[in-house]
């Protein structure tokens, strides 16, 4: 029998709509701008902004072969730029507790206006 991992005592993840616009600039180029981003807060981690794919310049990103697994969010897929490997990630099939982030893209560095 397979069981979903349980959050350790004191570990918490929340996902909510951001109340501020999010802008991603890399190498002087705007990669994403959104007023529909979701903010994911997880114990022990910085707030991460997940942006709908319609608000991301996917034409400027290349899918990567990289994948990582988080016991609380699921398996992430990555995208790169020529000068920045695995700069962006998304969860195509996230755990139910964070299902709202499905297919939204997250960047390592974002500017919240």
TrEMBL record:
<feature type="domain" description="DUF427">
    <location>
        <begin position="22"/>
        <end position="109"/>
    </location>
</feature>
<dbReference type="Pfam" id="PF04248">
    <property type="entry name" value="NTP_transf_9"/>
</dbReference>
<dbReference type="InterPro" id="IPR007361">
    <property type="entry name" value="DUF427"/>
</dbReference>
<protein>
    <submittedName>
        <fullName>DUF427 domain-containing protein</fullName>
    </submittedName>
</protein>
<dbReference type="InterPro" id="IPR038694">
    <property type="entry name" value="DUF427_sf"/>
</dbReference>
